[in-house]
Design a protein that fits this description.
six-stranded parallel β-sheet, 12 helices, 316 residues, 2 domains, alpha/beta, Rossmann fold, single chain, elongated
């Protein structure tokens, strides 16, 4: 037993955010878990994503990155000490940002672990000059191939589940996900269009549920104003709840955002709305039943366009 424990390597995976990126990275994390089946896998992430990663079963433990600011010397020294004390044989940087690549330099002057990523001088670089033109899933799969991991599965949300009994949900519902990055308003379908969509679905066979974070709570209240049955769950659900909701939903409609990645990987028929401001070839939601509606402007997508794309026309 002592020999087995001593031979167990410590492996670190870095994935800090955001939600859609974390969901897409669960497949690569599982590939790393499978490749290092006898080793100890840690994931360095940020606090909002700890429950989701823990529930997915891809890691033995999770470290929370406080993401120190540039002038927070104590924060950087603390992070350096923590990383160096981990005894990592290999680190997989799935974030591949300037910040995460900078973590490689925290091991100077050495010894440095094996490193898969894009940090200058790392042992297993993703050496494809066109990597930024690849979809996230293909890019990460190729990165892992270059590090010796041949097969990368798609993200599996099957193990992630929660008790939804406290929400008193209708028998048949759909998810409406109107949110998105606050600094990218051009990626959001107009509020008036969502209001019309919810109104058209309300009172039909499939009850619309508005989903999102606390920032979308007021928007959700506006969208259900005057409706008969629509429910606003924005700001009331955890990420684990959101996964469970998506698995049981008849369909989901929303902007290019994290919850729609959850819906897509859950197998829920998903209608995702895009403008020219973002490129589905690089970041589109992937799943067995995903429809991308893309126009030059989000305002050019009509409610009729959306309803026509639904597998059962929303029960209307």
């Amino acid at each position: 037993m002592q020999t087995a424990a001593k031979s167990k390597k410590h492996i670190l995976v870095i994935k800090l955010g955001a939600l859609g990126d974390v969901v897409q990275a669960l497949g690569p994390m599982q590939a790393i878990r499978d490749h290092h089946k006898h080793d100890h896998i840690s994931v360095l992430t940020t606090a909002p994503f700890e429950p989701l990663i823990a529930a997915s079963g891809v890691a033995d433990d999770i470290w929370i990155d406080q993401k120190p600011k540039a002038l927070n010397i104590c924060g950087w020294l603390g992070l350096r000490k923590k990383l160096r004390s981990g005894g990592f044989a290999r680190i997989y940087d799935l974030q591949t940002s300037d910040r995460s690549s900078g973590y490689y330099r925290l091991f100077w002057p050495g010894p440095s672990p094996e490193w898969s990523g894009i940090a200058a001088g790392c042992s297993h670089p993703h050496a494809n000059p066109d990597r930024d033109a690849m979809h996230t899933l293909e890019r990460q799969a190729e990165q892992l191939q270059m590090a010796g991991i041949k097969v990368t599965p798609v993200s599996d949300l099957g193990p992630v589940t929660s008790d939804l009994s406290g929400f008193d949900l209708p028998a048949d519902y759909c998810l409406i996900v109107p949110g998105g990055a606050g600094h990218r308003p051009e990626k959001r379908w107009p509020q008036a269009s969502y209001q019309q969509l919810v109104s058209r679905l309300d009172g039909g066979a499939v009850t619309p549920l508005i989903c999102g974070g606390p920032d979308e709570r007021a928007l959700g209240d506006t969208l259900i104003e005057g409706t008969k049955a629509a429910i606003n769950l924005a700001g009331r659900t955890s990420l684990i709840d959101l996964v469970t909701l998506a698995k049981q939903a008849r369909f989901a409609i929303g902007n290019d955002n994290g919850p729609m990645h959850i819906a897509a990987f859950s197998g829920t028929p998903s209608i995702v709305l895009y403008a020219q401001a973002s490129d589905p070839a690089l970041c589109a939601q992937r799943g067995p039943n995903v429809t991308i509606l893309r126009r030059a402007s989000m305002a050019n997508i009509t409610v009729d366009d959306v309803l026509a794309a639904l597998p059962d026309k929303g029960g209307s």
